[in-house]
Amino acid sequence: TCEAQRRRSVQDLSGIGTESSQESRNSSRSSSPSVRTIQPDKSSSRGYFSPDDPTGSVAVAEGVFSSSVTARFSLSLLLDTNGSDNSIPMAYLTLDHQLQPLAPCPNSKESMAVFEQHCKMAQEYLKVQTEIALLIQRKNELIAELDQDEKDQQNTSRLVQEHKKLLEENKSLSTYYQKCKKQLELIRVQQQKRQGTS
């Protein structure tokens, strides 16, 4: 009986602690209308990265990158903090959602440094992907040129064979023409002889 009462007391204390924590979160949300507080969510794959959190918890960045305009605005604020190049946000925005750097914790220098490094890696990644795309395009162009060269070579070979065949036919026709010409001359000579005797 004592053990059961002790367990109920612990459960009641846990429930009271959870309710008070939830109330404090709600009050903090309502007290600051211009600042949106984002609560931790370990199940989310996107959120704020903070190396100061030993449990590895992250906070969901809901709506921060819902559009490119919001993303540019958020990144411009980050650029004012870390002084990064304007090309980094563009690289950030053109990445797939799964590959985009996690938004940093502004209060953590280490988090900002990791974010800046991640943005540079994203920029390098996009550079490599662009080079790969250009190489693939060039490869396709070379393959098309090679196919065209093979077709031209086949056409050339066919034309050479046709030319050779036509030369042989021309030679044969020339021989036949000369033969017919001689026969015609012979016939004319014979006719002239007959006319002379008559």
UniProtKB/TrEMBL annotation:
Q: Does the keyword ATP-binding apply?
A: yes
* Protein name according to UniProt: (Atlantic silverside) hypothetical protein
The biological processes this protein is annotated with in GO are:
immune response; JNK cascade; positive regulation of canonical NF-kappaB signal transduction
According to the UniProt entry, its GO molecular function terms are:
ATP binding; MAP kinase kinase kinase activity
Q: Give residue spans, biased composition: Low complexity.
A: 20-36
Regions of biased composition (Basic and acidic residues) lie at: 1-10
Q: Where is this region: Disordered?
A: 1-54
- Keyword terms, alphabetized: ATP-binding, Kinase, Nucleotide-binding, Serine/threonine-protein kinase, Transferase
Family, similarity comment:
Belongs to the protein kinase superfamily. STE Ser/Thr protein kinase family. MAP kinase kinase kinase subfamily.
Q: Report which superkingdom the organism of origin falls in.
A: Eukaryota
